[in-house]
Amino acid sequence: MDSVNLKELQSQAHNFRVLYVEDNEPLRRNASKFLKKFFDHVDVAEDGQVGLKFFKEYHHPIVITDIKMPYMDGMELSKYIHELAPETKIIVMSAFDDKEFLLQAIELSLFRFLKKPVNVTELSSVLSQAIATIKHEQHVKMFQMHLKNIFEHQSSMVVLLENSQVVLVNDSFLEFFEFESLAECKKNMQSIEENFLEHSGFLYPHDGNAVLDIIQSSPDTLYNVKMKDSSHKIHHFIIKYQVIPEKEGYGVLSFDDVTELNLLKLFDATQSLEDEIEVENKSIVEFLYVIQRNSAKVELHNYYKGLSITNSGVIVEIGDNSLKVKTTYMQQKAVQIEKKTLLISNALPFTLELSAVKKINFENQSIVFEKLKFVKTSPVTRKTIRVVPAEKQTVSLFIGDGKYHGDIEIADISLDAVCLQLTTLPPGLEKGIEVILDMVLELDKKPLIINTKATLYRKQEMKHSFHLVFMFKDLKKSDLVKYITKRQMALIREIKGMQNG
Question: Model-level pTM?
Answer without folding.
Answer: 0.57
